[in-house]
Structure formats: C-alpha cells, structure tokens
Design goal:
With about 90 residues, the chain is an alpha+beta fold. The chain contains three helices and four strands; from the N terminus they run E-E-H-E-E-H-H.
Length: about 90
C-alpha cells in the first residue's frame, strides 16, 4: 500500500519579474504531520501559502491535494476547495 499524502508540492517556481520567490520547491505532507514555514523576510513563505490556497495561480509546478486532486481540481471542484484553509498572523 502506498503512502497517503494530504499535500504534495512538486517543483513549484514563482517569479516576480526577475526576482525568484520560489525556485523548484517540493515537499510532501502526510496525515498527522505538523509543518511550520520559517524563514527570513522575502524567503517565499507567504507566496507558497497563497499558491496552496489558490490565491496565486501564476506559478509553475504541480500540486496534489489529498492524494487525488490537482491544483486544477482545486479551482474547478468546490468539494476540494472547501477542505482547504489556513490562518495567518492575527
């Protein structure tokens, strides 16, 4: 039986003009894992969260949610998007 993933990020790259915010970024998150994004200002933390939430769509790479849905499914199938959310600093 294969590994179960909540989120798979593969080779995500995001540029703002000639500035690279994310460069070929990949990660997998499994059920029960706790993940923190830590880094300096300008490291790409907010950009990554905006991509994962569907706020930014202008990136290259692939996302898979719940082991079954692509980033395109996230935008086209309400049942996928309803399962995704995050909270920023309050």
């Amino acid at each position: 039986m294969g590994k179960e993933y909540l989120l798979q990020v593969q080779n995500v790259t995001k540029r703002y003009g000639d500035k690279i915010a994310l460069n070929d970024f990949s990660m997998d998150i499994c059920p029960g894992e706790i993940v923190a994004l830590i880094g300096e200002n300008g490291a790409g933390k907010t950009t990554l969260m905006n991509i994962l939430a569907g706020i930014r769509l202008d990136y290259k790479g692939e996302l898979r949610y719940f082991g079954a849905y692509s980033d395109k499914d996230r935008e086209n199938k309400p049942e996928v998007k309803e399962q995704i959310g995050y909270t920023g600093p309050g």
